[in-house]
# Entry
Amino acid sequence: MNNNRMILVLVVAVLVIGAIAAVAITKKKAMVNPASPASSGLEVPAESVITNPEPADSTAGWLVYTDSQGIFSFKYPASFGANVWKAEPWPPVAVYVPAGQDPLTVGCPDIHDETGKIPTATSGKTTGGMPYSLYLGSDIGAGQLYSSYCYVFVNDNGGAAVIDFVIRSHSACGFGGCGAYCGTQYESECTDLDRETAIADPITQMAETFIFTGAVTGTTQPAGVAKPDTAQPDVSAQPEAAAGKTVTLVDNQTNIALGVGDTFLLKLGEGYDWSVTVVDNAIVDREKNVAVVRGAQGIYKALAAGDTDVTATGDPVCRSAPPPCALASIMFVVHAAVR
# Structure
């Protein structure tokens, strides 16, 4: 009887140990090769499936900017600015500069750094791998910061497309202060401005969308200002091409020699509201009903031999912006000698 009881205990012990071992082996297999929902026959709700979605297009909804000759295009935000900063002009000025001409002189005549010199270029690439150069200028006055952007894209034949615009803001905004906005409804917007996210990143994304869309055929002068497809006057007649030379702020207080019938484009930029006067309109006068590119004040023609001055007074455009700046007006004059 004692022997039978002993045998029964041993059998039970063996069964228990075997059961424990079986459970352990099953758990180990489950850890090494867990059953997928599909292999287990379970139905998985669609919302529970984890996927890797494509990153959102940050330029979705932007407008496409195409020049009048179909040479180049790029995307840009329809609205770009806020209460405490503004892009001027917007859409930006864009011009095609043929090979042999200086893109900065033609496309960005006002670009300069805080010392008054042409800034050093930095390099970048479009999403298509095309290299470009960025000239970033700066100016400050009466609490206003002017950051000038000049993008230059060179194509295979040596010509270049140039995009030019200015970001105007209060010098304190985004740098821990609130300046003229302290105590106003825009104080927190100024103090909390993230210049990198709000301004720099979209500008870089805009440049990265640039492409040359067509071949250049027979263009020997700047191709005029690119523009969106709107009801604005068509400048495809190339007003700069019609002018024999371009006079800019660099020519201030200099002499220009003209022959009777010669023309020149007066292009003093968009940083000021210009009022132009010709001392003797019988010698030099502005051509009427001729469209000109942005930043230009007109095409002037030498009508008769003689000497006269072309003068201009520029009032800073920031005077009409809230809050108005206190920058002084500037004077410009060139002496025209017609022979």
